[in-house]
Amino acid sequence: MDYKVGLLGRIFVLTLTLFLLAYIIVNDSGVFAISLFIILTFVQLILLIRYAESSFKKVRQFLDNIKQNNYATVYPVKFDGTETDDLHIEFNAILAKLKEDQIEKEANFHYFRTVFQHLSIGLITFESDGSVQILNTAAKRMLNIDKLSHIQEIASINKELHHAIENLRTGGSELIKIAHPDGIMQLSVYAIELVLRDVKFKLVSLQNIQSELEEKEMEAWQNLIRVLTHEIMNSIAPISSLAATISSDIKSKMRQKETVEMEELRDYQMGLSTIEKRSEGLINFVSDFRSLAHIPFPKFSAIKIRELFDQMDLLLQNQLESQDVKLEKQITPEDLLLFADSSQIEQVMINLTQNAIHAVENLPDKKIYLRAFIDDNGKIIIEVEDSGKGIEEEALSKIFIPFFTTKKKGSGIGLSLSKQIMRRHKGNIQVKSTLGQGTIFKLIFNA
């Protein structure tokens, strides 16, 4: 029976019963008749309420099934065109769709979990209380463990690694060396902080870059040996040649017992003077090399970047004025502070600013820009830009190699020294140059 017809029928019968009850009460038809009709009225009222609630019970059951992720229930359909039948059809369609979405969600979850587990990069996710959510196979292999319940347990493996994982913020990275049964591993640790459904957690990636570092180290040594060989040979070749010439000439004079003329003495003196100068050059070269190899550990303190820029202006004032170079400074915000070693960062700024001054030599428009700001990732950026001729692409890839220089005068260690200082500060230095437009050196400090 259609739900509406059934409901209206029951209301009609109840109304008729109430009418008859009123009639017999008015006509005083007796206590028994009145009691009978009162009981009959209550029974019909209860049946009406139950009938009306029957659909609500189905809806409540349907909602409970959804709440409990129970999509297996099937509501009977008689295809008799009633509203109850239509309601069951809709319920079944909704449950089927939800079941399909659940299956697809579970399939995606298993897919991504499988991919997560089979990545060659180690991945760890843990909540703010330190409880580990996921630990993939690569991370287990790198840490040489079978399971990890709390991130604190990593401290027993390597305290430095645990400290890095706990303290790294989004975008931060660090190189950590750990012992492993297969040998020493150099891990690149990278962290991202996320919030999912109001739950904070951190995703940490571990990548073993030992082989890449060894390859780069070998390449760096080859470049360094090439430069050292070139510089040393340039100094030793004339020294050896002059020494051999002077020695041969003196031996010849001694064999023939000839007297040495004043003019010949002057030649000897000139040759020895040349040997002395080239020897001094070689000593200076070795001294520069020693300075690259012994950079002290930075002593961190708060630096006002405005004062740092003003110091650059003061130190290089004579050079700027003598060469008619305009220096512009821009800091956002004005009171920006940097936590670093004051003397080392000042040395880096001097190197970069002096390079910028040399870059704008013999140009009509000589401008240098010093900028400081905080980027979108919360990192403090210092830029040194010049309006010079720019650096050729071939030289651009070599400018941080020790003793490489594009200038006629210069040791070629300024940029190498600056790069090492930035690495000691857990930062980086980047360069961007366009021929005919200028060069920008960017110092990146991880906040």
Radius of gyration: 43 Å
Order of helices and strands: HHHEEHHEEEHHEHHEEHEEHHEE
Strands of the largest sheet, in order across it? 2-1-5-4-3
Helix count equals 12
Percent range for β-strand residues: 15-25%
Termini, distance in Å?
A: 73 Å
Class from helix and strand fractions:
alpha+beta
Low-confidence segments: none
Share of helix, binned:
40-55%
The tally of beta strands, per DSSP, is 12
Mean pLDDT: 78
Q: Strand count, sense and closure of the main sheet?
A: 5 strands, antiparallel
Shape: elongated
Structure description:
The protein has 447 residues and is of the alpha+beta class. The chain has twelve helices and twelve strands. The strands form three sheets. The chain has a five-stranded antiparallel β-sheet with strand order 2-1-5-4-3, with helices on both faces. Strands 7-9-10-12-11 form a five-stranded mixed β-sheet. A two-stranded antiparallel ribbon has the order 6-8. A hairpin with a 2-residue loop joins strand 4 and strand 5. Helix 10 packs antiparallel against helix 12. The chain is elongated and about 170 Å long. The two termini are 73 Å apart. The model has no long low-confidence stretch (mean pLDDT 78).
How do you describe this structure in short?
The protein is an alpha+beta fold. It has helices at 3-26, 31-67, 83-118, 137-143, 159-167, 210-256, 262-293, 305-315, 317-322, 342-359, 393-396, 414-424, and strands at 122-127, 132-135, 173-178, 185-196, 199-208, 301-304, 326-331, 337-340, 367-374, 380-386, 428-434, 438-445.
Strand and helix layout:
Layout (H helix, E strand, L loop, with lengths): L2 H24 L4 H37 L15 H36 L3 E6 L4 E4 L1 H7 L15 H9 L5 E6 L6 E12 L2 E10 L1 H47 L5 H32 L7 E4 H11 L1 H6 L3 E6 L5 E4 L1 H18 L7 E8 L5 E7 L6 H4 L17 H11 L3 E7 L3 E8 L2
Parallel strand pairs: 7-9
Antiparallel strand pairs: 1-2, 1-5, 3-4, 4-5, 6-8, 9-10, 10-12, 11-12
Helix pairs in contact: 1-2, 6-7, 8-10, 10-12
